[in-house]
Amino acid sequence: MLILLTGLLLGGTYTLIALGLTLQYGVARIMNLANGETLVAACFVTFWLYTGFGINPLLGLLVIGPVAFVVNWLIYTWLMQPLVKRARNRGMLEVDSILATFGLLFLFQGLMLQAFGGSYFNYEFLAQPFSIMGNSFGLNRVVAFVAAAVIAVALYTFLYHTDRGTAVRAVAVDPRAAMLVAIDVRKTAAFAFALGGAITACAGTLLSTFYTFNTSMGVIFTMKALIIVIMGGVGDVRGAVLAALVLGVTETLVASLLDPGLTLAANYALFIVVLLFRPQGIFGKRPA
Amino acid sequence: MLRRSFNVLMLSAALAVGTFGAAMAQDPVRIGVSASKTGPLAGGASGVLWPNIKLWVEKVNKAGGLKVGDQMRPIEIVEYDDKSTPEEAVKNIQRLATQDKVDLIIPPYSTGLNLATAPLIAKYGYPQIVSTGNANDLEQFVKRWPNTFWLLGKAQGIADGIVGTLKDLHDAGKIGNRVAVVNVSDAFGLEMIKTGKPALKQAGFDIVYESSYPLGNQDLAPVIASAKAANPDAFIAYSYPPDSFALTEQAQLQKFDVKAFFVSVGGNLNAYGKRFGAAANGVLIMGGVNASDPVFQAYRKEHLEVTGQEADWWASPVAYASLEILQQAVEHVGSLDKKALNKEIQSGTFKTVIGDVHFENNINNNNWTVAQWNDGVVHGVRATGNLQGAQQPVLKPAWPSN
């Protein structure tokens, strides 16, 4: 039971890391390699707000989310839109966006290095025991899990039960056909990219309450997010959540019953198994 | 991207001080630095190495410069980022030696990068005073590269330190013989466990739980849960900063109470004491300092004033000492002749913030190996060689409930 709960909490953390990218990659079709840097930048901003101004990280979400939304909207319209316009097919856009966001990664890293230096940062927030069925867990991790659940449910409701959300899904499935039914693909894609960025930033805020972070750590999160997004099926929120939970539980099972040294191996073994049997991801649609 | 940034600020400060002296007319002493500003090692290097270089250069230049013979020459730093990779580090050293033609070199951060750059630094004959790395087969290494100097001593001494402390506690009847030991699986963790584990067994300890976890992993709840289930008297983690924090947080959350709780790199950071506050009391860490030494206290104060950043409780003063040794060697020799400098460092004695340092066969054998947190201050409790000022370790109280 302890293992399952620990695993689910970890899965919640992973969900947070991956949800933003699944929107950006699945809908806006931008393979954002600077995803992890966005997350780490939010960690730093949260740290700065909390230690400098005493702003509670949970309140910080209210600032960081919208700001990240605007920043990502601008990034999409200024940096990515030209690539989208000139791309003749999806493959070309993917290559171009990978190169562009690779550059963005270094830009973000450099800016953070200038502002905060390269040392390790962390702070104490809600690092109290929280008891679930007689086992104690970090309250900060529980909060992150709850937030992940809230964000995932809200996102799901939005995508599957509103017109705007249906438009977003239509763009994810086929941007050309979406245009035929009077969906403004550009605006929708920009919206999805911005929303994805905002979710990633919120993830950073929540993660910073229990992770020690520094400027160079973004790539760890990008890798994790990428694995989850591809396992779950690109652009599918349900898939990302399921993949993240499976990954969290598997890693914890392996760490508790076999050897903590094997968590990474288990992680990639699972990834390979999914790729072998469902290369399009758990919920992904087979390309026609 | 090789970035070349002169330390303009330092230089102008030096010039301002020496405006009406002769210093202005003197050629600066050019010192090359290649160390990590990005990549996985940047966290350590920015906490320990870079701020001390800044502090040292500012101090020396404020005092009129580096005394070379009868001249006072300002220091000019030429610095490059090695991006935490050996390839880049080697390229940087090559450039510093051949393009920038620097007078002296401050070697990189970490064992790996120091080992990787040693042959090249030796080729150009610069003294390489290593303050942030160590290894076990140092005698062999020194024979091949006699211009390398090892301030932290041998890895053996550091890995065994905690075993000695536990044995003392056990012999005094204060703790039982059940030990849980975990390590981060990278070069450092593996080297430590390789020497630490046999030492534990030899000292009669029963290893009731042992495991390793991947570098960068901060989700360590299962590790602490398993260690707790094994019901040990002492817990040893050969760990790195992110995981040292994560293990401590989890131990506290899960009420994993042991009489001795030891973390390695990261426990020495000032941020550790800040993060855990009273909960850190009694935590044993790797390394240490003589916190009651007024020279060290003055250094800590200066470090904060000049760099805006707190010195840590192990590596910072050692890094600073390596620069003091370089400075004093130049003063003793009276020139920048590399051969003479190497000879002086081999045989001389140097007054530093970590006390008087004298290398024996290029290795400093007097090192703090274990220390203990108490009310926001770290006190050394065990050292190799003849270091003075060790305090008696106390048993760790139960984690405070918060």
Automatic annotation (TrEMBL), chain A:
GO MF assignments: transmembrane transporter activity
GO CC list: plasma membrane
A matching Pfam family: BPD_transp_2
Transmembrane segments: 30-51, 58-79, 99-121, 142-159, 189-213, 225-247, 253-277
InterPro entries tied to this protein: ABC_transp_permease, BCAA_transport_permease
Any GO BP: amino acid transport
Entry keyword annotation includes Cell membrane: yes
UniProt keyword list: Amino-acid transport, Cell membrane, Membrane, Transmembrane, Transmembrane helix, Transport
Signal peptide limits: none
Location in the cell: Cell membrane
Membrane topology, as annotated: Multi-pass membrane protein
Family listed: Belongs to the binding-protein-dependent transport system permease family. LivHM subfamily.
PANTHER family according to UniProt: AMINO ACID ABC TRANSPORTER PERMEASE PROTEIN, BRANCHED-CHAIN AMINO ACID TRANSPORT SYSTEM PERMEASE PROTEIN LIVH
Protein name: Branched-chain amino acid transport system permease protein
Organism: Mesorhizobium tianshanense
Automatic annotation (TrEMBL), chain B:
Transport is among the record's keywords: yes
Pfam families in the cross-refs: Peripla_BP_6 (PF13458)
Database matches in Gene3D superfamilies: 3.40.50.2300
Family annotation (InterPro entries): BCAA_transport (IPR051010), Leu-bd (IPR028081), Peripla_BP_I (IPR028082)
Domain of life: Bacteria
Keyword Flavoprotein among record annotations: no
Cleaved signal peptide residues: 1-25
Start and end residues of each Leucine-binding protein domain: 28-376
Record's keyword terms, sorted: Amino-acid transport, Signal, Transport
BP-aspect Gene Ontology terms: amino acid transport
Family the entry assigns: Belongs to the leucine-binding protein family.
Protein name: Branched-chain amino acid transport system substrate-binding protein
Organism: Mesorhizobium tianshanense
